[in-house]
Amino acid sequence: MNQDPQVRLGPRALARSLACFSSWTLGARGALAVLTFLALVAGPVQRAHADKLYFAGALWPIGRANLDGTELQLSDFSPYYASGLALDPAGGRAYWVEAYSVYSMKLDLTGTKQVVFTFRTNPSTGLAFDAATSRFYWGDDFGIWSRSLSSPFLQRVVRGHPVYGGDVELDSVHGKLYWVETSGYVNRVNLDGTGLETLPLTGLLGNYAGLYLDTMQGKLYWADPAGTIFRANLDGSNQEPLFQIDGGIISDVAVDSAHGKIYWTDAHTSRVMRANLDGSDREDLFASYATRLAILVPEPSSFVLAALGLIGLAASGWRKRRSGSNSA
């Protein structure tokens, strides 16, 4: 019997809880002091695995490397075929789909792999993980599904619009889920299953094509079967080709927008590559049968974001008190 991992409060939920509790008991200034201290402590922990490129594929170890391809590190086991890869930097875990199960291991790739849960029916593909709610999303021949890390109950998000080999990506900022349908179209939907849209992208993606969402920049990246890498707004508008990989069969892309770099896996050459966003300065990083990429770059700690929010709360309270004293 598979045993679920211990229930863990996500960092954003924890930050919100601490913000409310500290504000109630200590006032805005006290809450600000508490969360600022926690930001200094928790920030380095969440950034411990940043600036890393993770990859998974068929009969090839789960691995990671620095963003320039150096310090290549491989795990001690190779999935038969990893059809989805998701990272949880706050929880320190990497997750992937392999046939009928979701597995996990530490982000530093040490230790053994663990079965998180097993699918009841069809083998599944694509995987996204929402760290704020500790919830997984994936697809299969019957549509899109969801499951909490702490609960065995499945939730159907979308009926139909099957996924076979395609990618599933989460936009937690705007509460949207994206996936590549078996037909090659890219769909998106609200996390509760409402608002289903087929994006107006020209040309179909391959069945095994990957997506990358740069939610901070509001951009969607993908590649078509001919080896052209594209970019568009998250709603599919303003589509533009970035560059062409001659003879390439691109199965996934990932973007480091802070440094203006794009990464891709080339199934034709079995290499992981990177270039500037305009296609210049192309680099051959390392050999791999990777079909899925995931990238970790430094992001603000949730405690930092909560502390910044409380700065506004404290300032608002100070202005109200000052206004009241002046009127008196």
What's this model, at a glance?
It is built from 2 helices and 24 strands. With about 325 residues, it is an alpha+beta fold. The strands form 6 sheets. Strands 3-2-1-24 form a 4-stranded antiparallel sheet, with no helix packed on it.
Task: Note the topology.
Elements: H1 11-46, E1 52-57, E2 63-66, E3 73-74, E4 82-88, E5 93-98, E6 101-106, E7 114-118, E8 125-130, E9 135-140, E10 143-148, E11 154-159, E12 168-171, E13 176-180, E14 186-190, E15 197-198, E16 211-214, E17 219-223, E18 228-233, E19 240-244, E20 250-256, E21 261-266, E22 271-276, E23 283-287, E24 290-296, H2 302-327
Antiparallel strand pairs: 1-2, 1-24, 2-3, 4-5, 5-6, 6-7, 8-9, 9-10, 10-11, 12-13, 13-14, 14-15, 16-17, 17-18, 18-19, 20-21, 21-22, 22-23
Helix pairs in contact: 1-2
Word description of this protein:
The chain has 328 residues and is α+β, with helices and mostly antiparallel strands. Helix content is 19%, strand content 39%. The protein has a 4-stranded antiparallel sheet with strand order 3-2-1-24, with no helix packed on it. A hairpin with a 4-residue loop joins strand 20 and strand 21 (261-266). Helix 1 crosses helix 2 (302-327). Residues 1-24 and 300-308 have low confidence and may be disordered.
